[in-house]
Amino acid sequence: MRKNKGLIRKIHDALVSKKVSCFELTSWYLREIEKSDLNAFITVTKEHALESAKKVDEKINKNQEIGLLEGVPMSLKDNFSTKNILTTCASKILENYVPIYNATVYEILKNQGCILLGKNNQDQFAMGSSNETSYFGPVKNPHDKTKVPGGSSGGSCASVAAGLAAFAMGSDTGGSIRQPAAFCGIVGMKPTYGSISRYGIIPLASSLDQAGPLTLTVEDNSIVYDCLAVHDPKDETSCKLARKKTFDSLDSSIENLKIGIPTNCFEGSDKEVYDAVENAAKFYEKFGAKITYFAFPELDFSMPVYCVLGRAETASNMARFDGIRYGYKYKGEYSDVNDLMTKTRSEALGDEVKRRILVGSYVLNSGYYDSFYKKSLVAKNLITKKFAEKFEEFDILITPTSPTTAFGFNYAGDDPLKMQLADICVVNANIAGIPAISIPCGYDSNNLPIGMQIMSKCWSEDLLLRVAYKYEKENFFAKIIGGVQFEI
Amino acid sequence: MASKISKDEILKLAKLSRLEFSEDETKKLLKDIGNIMKLTSKIEKYDSSEVTYDNIQSDYEKPEYDSCTHDEILSGGINKNGFFFVKKY
Q1: B35, part of any domain
Q2: Nearest by CB to B19, which of A112, A342, A372?
Q3: Residue A199 and residue A234 in contact, taking contact as beta carbons nearer than 8 Å
Q4: Nearest to B59 by CA among A378, A296, A396
Q5: Would A19 disulfide with which of A14, A401, A450, A485, CB 3.0-4.6 Å?
């Protein structure tokens, strides 16, 4: 048994040994959320959470066995559908939308007995890298409230980093789990595409979207991943492959790793980020790892491919928000159904959302389809193949998660492209469908966390988490900011 | 060239996308979309002379396993085919 227990196992032990009741623990988290000024939650499900906590306590009091995740308070990004609970996707158009079904991710976590504390703030429809596009206002970074928490899963990451939830779930289309995890100094993993069900997650770009856990420690991440990485017949892209369990092998050997460092992913990084990530990679040398630096020119296509495919799929996915079937409907006068749709969408969708719909419609336009969309699909396949080749040579690839640490509000000003380029290191894993994790690897001179990204081949989350765990075990950098962590 | 998107094109696309913009918003969009298009123009220049259905498909083979039902997933355990899904710790 490992000595360094993650937060989830500590909570489990405290509940089982009756050091604390689930009701007390949940109430404590709810009070922390109430006190917080981070704007990390859109909806707090207080009554629902306390009711669920009482049920867990009843089981414990009857000396019935409870699962490892049972009674653990957590939160969900607001793009996970939750039956009878508001799901806004941080938008005006879904401001009052209450789903009639649960996302499979929530259904599984609920079935495991997790306590849902609420729904986290995010970038509107997950479009953004700073959490500033939310209709409900920006989220603040718990490490420095003048900085953004990253995005789009900014609220979820801020919650975990500030001790407002034991863990949270996010979604990652072009780095939306890993980039905010790095900015907030926590652990965020985007697993292999098709490993965790997307059913019930409001889609951004369906061929790139993937859900993943946001946790304080690698061990916690492994526990949540093992629980969720299952085939879901309701999701056509959910793979039938039996997933390897990761928790039991966390402590296994990582001797003689072959580590690749794509040098172009370090270009443009802040010096402090560059040095911290390079030093973190060198940590593995004491276990016999061999580090090789190499150029990966095909990655130059990743951002353009992401911009084209992501926006094309966004334009298609966003067509459903028409003000007729569900969500906000324009309240003024309109001439016909087209006019109603136009007025509803123009009023209720955010600027970034509209911009992406327009670019998506443009690249799908008959005159440009071959120049953009089709070529992007081919380039996507080229990048995927090149990654597969690299993983025959290397066990893992290491890059910074983001070229900078958390930046200030309105960093990109009037240039959305500048914001997009904050995701330059993270979009590659979405394009190739490979798993990638961001773990904290130090702090810059302003005491802001730095994230290291580790990537491995498809379906090797066990290796990925093992490598991350080894680093965390000897160099623990994550810390809870803002509150006093519950004593357990 | 893609980066030369015109105002008329924006208005046409906006109509197609069921969106409407003021004059100021259109001007801003012209600049924003022009910037995005400069980035994506790398793709325009990318030589993909052999664009076929086959090379659009991913090379990753997904092994076939016997499936399990949604109810099985939610109840947790291992089904008759030895397929594991949700493990109760």
Answers
A1: yes
A2: A342
A3: yes
A4: A378
A5: A14
Q: What is the ipTM of this complex?
A: 0.82
Number of domains in chain B: 1
**Per-position pLDDT tens, chain A of length 488:** 455 688 999 999 999 999 999 999 999 999 999 999 999 999 999 999 999 999 999 999 999 999 999 999 999 999 999 999 999 999 999 999 999 999 999 999 999 999 999 999 999 999 999 999 999 999 999 999 999 999 999 999 999 999 999 999 999 999 999 999 999 999 999 999 999 999 999 999 999 999 999 999 999 999 999 999 999 999 988 988 788 889 999 999 999 999 999 999 998 899 999 999 999 999 999 999 999 999 998 898 899 899 999 999 999 999 999 988 888 999 999 999 999 999 999 999 999 999 999 989 988 887 777 778 888 888 888 888 899 999 999 999 999 999 999 999 999 877 777 787 788 899 999 999 999 999 999 999 999 999 999 999 999 999 999 999 999 998 877 777 665 455 55
Q: Does A1 touch chain B (CB under 8 A)?
A: no
Residue B10 lies in a domain: yes
Burial grade of A125 (CB within 10 A; 0-12, 13-18, 19 or more): buried
Contact B44 A111 (CB under 8 A): no
All residues of chain B having their beta carbon less than 8 Å from the beta carbon of residue A363 are 40
pTM for the whole structure: 0.91
In a domain, B78, yes or no: no
Kindly report the CATH number assigned to the domain that includes residue B34.
1.10.20
At residue A440, what are phi and psi to the nearest 5 degrees? Answer: -70, 140
Domain ranges, residue B26: 2-45
Which class is A7-267+270-296+382-474 in CATH?
alpha beta
